[in-house]
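Title: Comparing notes on inverse folding

I've been comparing how different people in this forum approach sequence design from structure. To keep things fair, I'm posting one structure and asking everyone to reply with a full sequence. Here's the target:
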């Protein structure tokens, strides 16, 4: 009798577990990243959201990557766009989380044309304007704002002999927005600093050029990602190259959302 009761109990538990596993979640969230998996910025956002949702079995999180740092924003008729539309418009998710500008633009231009009633939550948005959410009926989110002027003003106080400034940036969506913002802000200190803009130089060229800088130069690493072979920030690589050069100070600005 004892064995029969134990066996019956096990079968009952197995059935319950199976039923629980087969029960679909009540809510589906689409997390759409602008960039690629493996990028520390992107991975930290995913991990934070997963951590908040891990105890909620009623929610399914689906994660997609537009990979725009390496391939640029997808065109309306591209395979990436067609795949996203086929996967996430029928049935639509209950909520879309758009991480960074390219993802929000994709949601605005592509997804909301097909699923206009799905709420959108965004994070990591640079230089927000109403145009970024035009056509999105329900939205909320977190903005980020950098201040290259305040960064350099503080660096100048710590290094009063500095009269040259090098700004390193790329031409990605974020890079273009940040370089425009930096040019506008840093115009206030043109009389104090001679400013060079290093845009889209290769890692090899940057390393070579950094070694030739004089001790009166500040370096602002504003936003830099390079091509298919560079999948993460180059901060550590530059710091490693400069650690033995006491004549150069590196100022690093993070878009920390």
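Reply #1:
Here's my take.
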């Amino acid at each position: 009798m004892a064995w029969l009761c134990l066996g019956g109990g096990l079968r009952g538990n197995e059935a319950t577990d199976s039923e629980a596993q087969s029960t679909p979640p009540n809510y589906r969230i689409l997390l759409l990243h602008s960039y690629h998996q493996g990028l520390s910025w992107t991975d930290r956002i995913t991990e934070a959201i997963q951590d908040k949702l891990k105890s909620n079995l009623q929610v399914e999180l689906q994660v997609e990557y537009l990979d725009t740092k390496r391939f640029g924003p997808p065109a309306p008729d591209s395979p990436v766009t067609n795949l996203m539309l086929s996967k996430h418009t029928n049935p639509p998710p209950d909520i879309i989380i758009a991480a960074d500008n390219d993802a929000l633009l994709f949601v605005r231009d592509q997804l909301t044309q097909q699923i206009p009633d799905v709420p959108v939550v965004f994070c990591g948005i640079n230089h927000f304007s109403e145009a970024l959410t035009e056509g999105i009926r329900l939205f909320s989110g977190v903005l980020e704002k950098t201040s290259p002027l305040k960064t350099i003003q503080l660096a100048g106080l710590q290094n009063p002999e500095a009269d040259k400034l090098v700004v390193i940036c790329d031409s990605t969506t974020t890079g273009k927005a940040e370089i425009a913002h930096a040019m506008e802000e840093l115009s206030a200190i043109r009389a104090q600093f001679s400013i060079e803009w290093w845009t889209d130089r290769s890692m090899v060229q940057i390393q070579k050029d950094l070694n030739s800088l004089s001790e009166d130069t500040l370096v602002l690493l504003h936003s830099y990602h390079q091509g298919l072979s560079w999948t993460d920030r180059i901060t550590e690589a530059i710091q490693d190259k400069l650690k033995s050069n006491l004549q150069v100070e590196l100022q690093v600005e993070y878009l920390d959302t």
